[in-house]
Amino acid sequence: MWTPTHFPAAMRSLNATTRAKAIELANQLIGQGYTDKNEIIQHSVSEARRWAREHAQRNERVFVSSHSQRTF
Questions:
Q1: What is the rounded radius of gyration, in angstroms, for the C-alpha atoms of the chain?
Q2: From CA 12, how far away is CA 46, in angstroms rounded?
Q3: Please, is 19 exposed, middle or buried when counting C-beta atoms within 10 Å of its C-beta (0-12, 13-18, 19+)?
Q4: What is the distance between the terminal CA atoms of the chain, rounded to a whole angstrom?
Q5: What is the per-residue pLDDT across 19-72, written as a single tens digit (0 to 9) for each?
Q6: DSSP-derived secondary structure letter, 14
Q7: How far apart are CA 8 and CA 45, in angstroms?
Q8: Contact between 4 and 21 (Cβ < 8 Å)
Q9: Any idea what DSSP says for residue 71?
Q10: Which pLDDT value is given to residue 71?
Q11: What are the angstrom distances between the C-alpha of 48 and each of 6, 16, 63, 66?
Q12: Where do the H-state alpha helices sit in 6-72?
């Protein structure tokens, strides 16, 4: 199991939020019985980056829509 202070070097370049998601996903895969650490790391980093992109886009749409409804 990995933690926010003990994680693979491949996750070092991720920002803290994306890294936390990658750690969560990696630990889930380990819990499901996956054993190939390289594959677990590669998959979790990839999925965490995808999650971060989607999360950022969703927040951007909320920001734009909440500001576009203002009347002056």
A1: 16
A2: 14
A3: buried
A4: 53
A5: 999 999 999 999 999 999 999 999 999 999 999 999 888 776 654 444 445 444
A6: S
A7: 10
A8: no
A9: -
A10: 46
A11: 17, 11, 22, 27
A12: 16-31, 37-68
Tokens coding 41: 């790391």
Amino acid residing at 63? F
The pLDDT score that the predictor gives to residue 25 is 98
**Closest CA relative to residue 22, chosen from 45, 3, 2, 1:** 45
CA dist 67 → 32, 61, 63, 70, 72 (Å)? 43, 10, 6, 6, 12
Give the tokens for residue 32: 């499901």
What is the DSSP secondary structure assignment for residue 21, as one 8-state letter? H
Six token digits for residue 10: 């491949």
* Predicted TM-score (pTM) of this structure: 0.79
Predicted pLDDT of residue 60 = 66
